[in-house]
Every structure is written in structure tokens, then in C-alpha cells.
């Protein structure tokens, strides 16, 4: 936290766009960025005077809300969704900035025996042996998980064991003992108490996810939102991203 305070203080001087009056920036975001944004919000406020109003939902849900006219200043989504919303005029053209990427891994309950997931065959055996597996229909990770079963040739055996989770993370179901495991991006695992990362998916099955930020075409606070994007390029933001299992993308 000391490093964040130092960088935040420096940004007060370095960011020439600091405004005389504080603004509240409405930020929509995939839950994967929740830990990072919650950690960085106080430092950003100290640096600029602006506060963040954070709303977290799965990418498909956010995309539908934005298409229906949801008001916001900045949004964190996947590149494909960002590009679609730019084409439809919801996101300012040229405002998209890729912030970070992360890998997918297997989450299990803390204290449970750690399964082998390092190779395709290891992962296949682990999924077949699991008594219950949680996943979310309203997430890109959930869609990839279903596709993974087909790639491994085990869809028929595994799908009857799926626990469909709505309104919460499938990782929470693992933490509560409702499911034995799930596959999801790493930040969604390390942020939840009661679960651990059993391991990353093997390279041949890995699914790296990139997260992008963009500005609303109807932003109430466009200048303040631009400062947030600039702040995400700071050393403090890079450290926060790494601490949550994300790899910063350097422009």
C-alpha cells in the first residue's frame, strides 16, 4: 500500500487533467476486475478527488444492459464485446484500451486434496472423477468451460454433474461445498475465501482472457473517466493487477 500512496501523490502533480471539482464516475465492470478496482479506488480518489461508483456483472449481462441504455462513464469488458458496442455507438470510437490479461485455472475447496490438472489427460481424469462441478451460464468463462468438455470428449459424462449457478460466482459454490470444483479465470479464484487454485489449465487447453476499458458515448463525466484510464497505466495499478492474478498490458 505504501507504493500506491507514493504513486497516487505523484499523480496529483503529474496528471494535468485534475479538475477543480470532484466527480463520481459510474463504472461497469466484469467481476474479474473487482478486486483490482476496489483496491485502487482509494488511491485514485486521493490522486484526483474523483470517486468510483462500481457495478459488477458478467460480460453478457453488462452488454445487454448497455444496449438497453444503461447509464455509465467507463466500462471494463472483453475486447469483442467492446468492439460490438463501439460499432453500435455505445462506446466512444478509439477509446478502447486493453488493460490486462489472465489465464484460466481450476478452483477447489481449501483443504481438499489437490487434483492433477497439468496435462490434458490429468484434467480429463479430474473432471470425470469430480462428483459435482459448478459453472455460470452468464459468463464467458462458463461458455468456454462447456466448450472444454467437448474438446476433451467427455461432455456426455460431465454435463449431468454440472451445478448451474446464477446471481453469484461459481467459485462461491465451491467455497460452500456445493460443488467440488470449477474452471474460471484466476482472479475469480484468488479473491474468494475458502477456495484455492489447484493449477492452471494446460497450455494446449489454456484460454487467456483480455480485459479492456472504454468510455461511454453518453458519459456524464468523460474527463474524469479519462483520468481513470490514465491511472490504470500507473506502477501502482500494475502492482495491484499482478497481486490479483492479472498481467498488465503495456501500451
CATH superfamily annotation of the largest domain: Periplasmic binding protein-like II
Q: How many DSSP H or I helices? A: 11
CATH class of the largest domain: Alpha Beta
The coarse overall form would be: elongated
What is the count of structural domains?
Answer: 2
N to C succession of SSEs: HEHEHEHEEHEHHEHEHEEHHE
Which structural class best describes the helix and strand composition?
alpha/beta
> Residue ranges: pLDDT <50 for 5 or more in a row?
1-19
Mean pLDDT: 89
Level of helix content? 40-55%
Instruction: Name the strands of the widest sheet in spatial order.
Output: 2-1-3-10-4-11
| Total E-strand runs | 11
CATH architecture of the largest domain: 3-Layer(aba) Sandwich
Measured on Cα atoms, how large is the radius of gyration?
19 Å
Major pleated sheet: 6 strands, mixed
Explained architecture:
The chain has 251 residues and is an alpha/beta fold. It is 41% helix and 22% strand. It contains eleven helices and eleven strands. It has helices at 2-14, 34-48, 59-67, 79-87, 120-129, 140-152, 155-158, 170-175, 187-190, 222-231, 235-243, and strands at 24-29, 51-56, 74-77, 97-102, 104-109, 133-135, 162-164, 181-185, 195-200, 209-215, 247-248. The strands form three sheets. A six-stranded mixed sheet has the order 2-1-3-10-4-11. The chain is elongated and about 55 Å long.
In short:
With 251 residues, this protein is α/β, with parallel strands linked by helices.
List the helices and strands and how they pair.
Blueprint: H1 2-14, E1 24-29, H2 34-48, E2 51-56, H3 59-67, E3 74-77, H4 79-87, E4 97-102, E5 104-109, H5 120-129, E6 133-135, H6 140-152, H7 155-158, E7 162-164, H8 170-175, E8 181-185, H9 187-190, E9 195-200, E10 209-215, H10 222-231, H11 235-243, E11 247-248
Parallel strand pairs: 1-2, 1-3, 6-7
Antiparallel strand pairs: 3-10, 4-10, 4-11, 5-8, 5-9
Helix pairs in contact: 1-2, 1-11
